[in-house]
Design goal:
single chain; 208 residues; alpha/beta; five-stranded parallel sheet; 7 helices
Amino acid sequence: MKVLLVNGSSHRKGCTYTALKEVADTLEKQGIETEIFQLGAKPISGCIACGACHKTEQCFMNDPVNEFIDKAKDADGFIFGSPVHYASASGMLTSFMDRVFYTNHTHGQLDYKPAAAVVSARRGGTTATFDQINKYFTMNNMPVVSSQYWNMVHGTSAEETKMDLEGMQTMQTLGKNMAWMLKIMEAGKMAGIQLPEREERIATNFIR
């Protein structure tokens, strides 16, 4: 089993990475393979709703979105991490998730795979960002993995983040809970329990 952890910060090993690494280390101790997927520091364009991905499972823009979509097919769970920018996820992660999940609406490569959000901040805006990221999961048939508190850490550097003992413990608990859910799902699969049938989406327009 494998979990993909997405670092939505342009800082490769900053506060968000530190939180994700704590989750990843816990997952590894539970026998779950992990990979931290770094978005990088280059701009990621927003979705233009062209619909090309509905036919190809790939976005026509050549950037980390397509690389992630390919990796996601073999992953069993996901954690998306972001710094707080004006009480929201980073613009880079927002654009990335918009395009990944727009593709998923048609192809369902993420459906029924557990996911969680992780956010980091100096001080405030964490709960709004946490809610924003979780909405992607609840619109795509993805079980949401919880922890003992909202999945957030505080600090202005990796060193300060490690000093947030409650935040670090929350990340450890999240890792344990993700591993637990993945193992339960695997046991269910081995027992012959099938995933829910994915129905064709019905879109109702209110203006006619």
